[in-house]
Amino acid sequence: MMNEHTIVIGKALRVFLPMFFVLLLIVAILPWIMPTSNIGGFLLSIFGVTHFLPVNHQNIGDALYNFNLTTRILGIMGSFISLLPLLISTLVMIKLCNNYSHNNVFSVANANAYSRLGILYLLSAIILQPLSQMFFSFGISLSNKIGPHFIATGFDISNLTAIFFSVILIIIGQVMKAAHKIAEEQALTV
Questions:
Q1: What are the angstrom distances between the C-alpha of 109 and each of 102, 115, 139, 141?
Q2: What is the pTM (predicted TM-score) of this model?
Q3: Is the separation of the CB atoms in 30 and 72 below 8 Å?
Q4: What distance in Å separates the CA atoms of residue 104 and residue 125, rounded to the nearest whole number?
Q5: Is 70 exceeded by the pLDDT of residue 152?
Q6: Which of 56, 106, 121, 144 falls 20 to 30 Å from 5 in CA-CA distance?
């Protein structure tokens, strides 16, 4: 039955999502504690930190990069800003899965949650991701022994993709609100 399947998935995700939340916290901090390790370098490249390295020194493990405390703090702040939408959306999804496990799928609360997720990702694409890039670029430039310190940001296809899907989430939330209102009206007209 569809409802039983939704309940089982909701319960399973309620177990998985808190572990995912903790993993995100580790991903935000770990690469700045161990930037020259393989896993640290890999995570820093996922954050896009390597884009801010000089062309002739693209390897994080390069002896040129001696990340001082300020660089690490700026990096961790940039990582948290970058991951903030995922952290918040994980908490929202835990709440949604709790509703799903109680067979509460089409409700105003769930519709609002989807709309909030859309707004969160829209803000992420327009404000948070460029802001995190500023932290990363400035932090990395502080480790430049040669060359100026700088703040850089950019807007690319990942920002456009996030904007597109955030609008879809907002629309889904509005459709769910309308569907809930129609269901309530039909229940009253019986």
A1: 13, 10, 40, 45
A2: 0.81
A3: no
A4: 30
A5: yes
A6: 121
Number of residues written out for the chain: 190
DSSP, res 62: S
Dihedral angle at the C-alpha atoms of 29, 35, 41, 44, nearest 10 degrees? 40
Nearest Cα to 44, choosing from 24, 57, 29, 55?
29
Q: Return contacts of 50-56, CB within 8 angstroms, 24+ apart.
A: 51/154, 52/133, 52/136, 52/137, 52/140, 52/141, 52/152, 53/140, 54/144, 54/147
* Angle, CA 166 vertex, CA 165 and CA 171 arms, to 5°: 95
- Residue 34, pLDDT score: 86
56: pLDDT confidence band, cut at 50, 70 and 90? low
